[in-house]
Amino acid sequence: MRRRLWRLTDTDTREYSHADVHTYGLWGKMDAAALKTFLEENPKMREILRLAVEVEEADPNQKGQFGWEWHDVRAHPSSLMKLVVAGIVKVNYKSNRSTMYLLVDRPTVKKALAQGR
Q1: Residue 60 confidence class, pLDDT cut points 50, 70, 90
Q2: Which of 25, 32, 43, 61 registers the highest number of CB atoms within 10 A of its CB?
Q3: What distance in Å separates the CA atoms of residue 98 and residue 88, rounded to the nearest whole number?
């Protein structure tokens, strides 16, 4: 697979494949402390993630379900792409008609949301 060079800062340049960025974002999976810091810097994301947790927990079996869409969490797709790049949300399914998302680590997101209250 061809690798693309992503520039994160002026001094930090790393190689990532397109699949890596889509699944885990540029920085990989976030831990609770990093997610808490991210939410402090981006307070609008807190409501998006709270709704994402609610949607994912509404159907615990998730049989035949690919995830949730932008309108389920009342967020513009560009906001969701910021969460994908940060490694909090992943694109689970993509077609010409829809893009379905899932949280990468739901327990960590719940923990960070609870800490921020």
Answers
A1: low
A2: 25
A3: 19
Rounded Cα distance between 55 and 100, Å, is 12
Q: What share of residues in the chain are helix, strand, coil (percent, to 5)? A: 45, 15, 35
**pLDDT value at 70 more than 90:** yes
Residue 56 domain boundaries: 16-115
Which pair of structure tokens corresponds to residue 69? 């869409």
Specify the amino acid at residue 87. Answer: G
Which residues are bridge partners to 89 per DSSP?
103
Beta bridge pairs of residue 101: 68, 91
Question: What CATH number is attached to the domain comprising 42?
Answer: 1.10.10
